[in-house]
Amino acid sequence: xxxxxxxxxxxxxxxxxxxxxxxxxxxxxxxxxxxxxxxxxxxxxxxxxxxxxxxxxxxxxxxxxxxxxxxxxxxxxxxxxxxxxxxxxxxxxxxxxxxxxxxxxxxxxxxxxxxxxxxxxxxxxxxxxxxxxxxxxxxxxxxxxxxxxxxxxxxxxxxxxxxxx
Length: 165
Fold this sequence. Notes:
By secondary structure, the protein is mainly α. It has helices at residues 2-19, 26-125, 130-164.
């Protein structure tokens, strides 16, 4: 009976040792799982933050590019405006030069007519000697030459205006 009892106790203890699982500390396992989940969540958060930062940088680059393009367009518009104003000023100046040349021609023409009339009047009355008559003819000739020069100036001014238009 002792042997049976010993065999039973031996079998029972053998079964008890084989039947038991190795005990793992469940708290430790939960902590490790929680730690892994936290690390995984931290990695995902970091990836999301990096993605947001990249998107912000991309948006900033696009904004800077648009700003540069707008500045470039504004400079181009200012340059075109300046050129247009310059062209208008040149046209106005050319018109003014034409008017000035016409005015000078008219003044010269009046002076020339006056001098011719005065010369003819003095010549008819016989108050001119040959020397004075020569001076008067020289004076009239100079004014006629001046009229021709003024006519050339007028034509130049007219051509300049035509080129601008």
